[in-house]
Amino acid sequence: MADVDFAAIRQQFPILDQEIHGHPLVYLDSAATSQKPQCVIDAESEFYRTINAGVHRGAHELAARSTMAFEEARAKVARLVGANSEEGEEEIVVTAGATAGLNLLATAFGNASLGRGGKAAQRFALKPGDEIVVSKAEHHSVLLPFQELAYRTGATLKWFDLTEDGRIRSDTANQVITERTKVVAITHVGNTTGAITDIAPIVRRAHEVGAVFILDACQSVPHLKVDFHAMDVDFAAWSAHKMYGPTGVGFLYGKRGLLEALPPANFGGSMVELAWMDKPAEYMAPPARFEAGTQPVAQVVAAGVAADWMRAIGMENIEAHEKAIAGELLKLGDIDGVRILGPRENVDRIGTVAFDVQGVHPHDVGQFIDSLGIAIRVGHHCAQPVHRHFGLYASNRASTGLYNSVEDAQALVEAVSKVRPFFKV
Ligand code: PMP
């Protein structure tokens, strides 16, 4: 790991410099949303102060500058994830977030199933007897859009099972994915377990049978170096707000050839070459085809700043820094009556550590921890099947960002060790 001063980087986050209930804030809820460095906050307001205008329209100078800033941001985001961004080769679509990107795909596949998009789109079409494959570790924003797609098309939803500690059973790829499988949608990192999925065997098998592979990259892009070309994924969706960028925007990666074949999912302004009253419109090439309506330009520009800022720190450095904190968080498992829902070894996992405190409801745990100034998430984290896998309905979840320190994790472990004595269980 290069010598990066993460304590100094933490100073770039104004929100972290405050007390909660009389204690210094320890923010361990970055899997829900990350905090924003000053440069990202400034980028958004600077955009509004200096170049705010609609993009891709209007002949005036501000519109041109705004368009340039928007496209530069797309290129910055593309560089973070190993995607193309040259004009005519763009592989990054702006969305309203991971959920929107995943729904865009499911809707577009549904449209292809109705014959929209012509012959080229037939590779995405589903019919009764076809299969869609997900896993039990999916966030509801993967599970539900593709489950609904199955209902709409008559396709069958199948899923990967999990190991006892919550890893997706990649070793069963050859059985779960069959010649009938058309779509495979899998999380790169479990938002509850923190486990990094061994996606290579799944991608390989999906392609062997001609299926499209979709990656939920929400919990990997902020923490790991990813290269979608090297990983050979067909599509990937994630949100800017978890990678130190603003809320309200996200990105969908698609291999250029697939984006060109994919029919649109949302319809409106700025996405057609020609529109008629009496015949279907002719849609623009990607990415514009998927970006109907006025775009959240300020937020996209700020997300581009976040992407560059992360690259400047170095994804390998971020990964190593958070790994050390994860090691400390995993000591939660040594506390009497505390069970970790996910891999207990600090291998192929990130610093997202969900845990159950025997005999104490997660909301009580969360409130007790909050009273000490520590922010964690409680509930089912929009991932009910994985909780059912562990025999629970809800849990507590601590999750790191690059601004956390080993001391933050130690503070949590100490706080959690007091929970059962406090509640007298
Ligand atoms: N997938 C995973 C793994 C997530 O953690 C989240 C965010 N909780 C999402 C998808 C959905 O992201 P968003 O709510 O930003 O659209």
Automatic annotation (TrEMBL):
Its cofactor is pyridoxal 5'-phosphate. It comes from the Bacteria. InterPro entries: Aminotrans_V_dom, Aminotrans_V_PyrdxlP_BS, Cys_dSase_SufS, PyrdxlP-dep_Trfase, PyrdxlP-dep_Trfase_major, PyrdxlP-dep_Trfase_small. Residues 26-412 form the Aminotransferase class V domain. CDD domains: SufS_like. Its EC number is 2.8.1.7. Keywords: Pyridoxal phosphate, Transferase. It is an enzyme of class 2 (transferase). PROSITE patterns: AA_TRANSFER_CLASS_5 (PS00595). The keyword Transferase applies. It catalyses: (sulfur carrier)-H + L-cysteine = (sulfur carrier)-SH + L-alanine. It holds the Pfam family Aminotran_5. Catalyzes the removal of elemental sulfur and selenium atoms from L-cysteine, L-cystine, L-selenocysteine, and L-selenocystine to produce L-alanine. Belongs to the class-V pyridoxal-phosphate-dependent aminotransferase family. Csd subfamily. This is Cysteine desulfurase. The lineage of its organism: Bacteria, Bacillati, Actinomycetota, Actinomycetes, Bifidobacteriales.
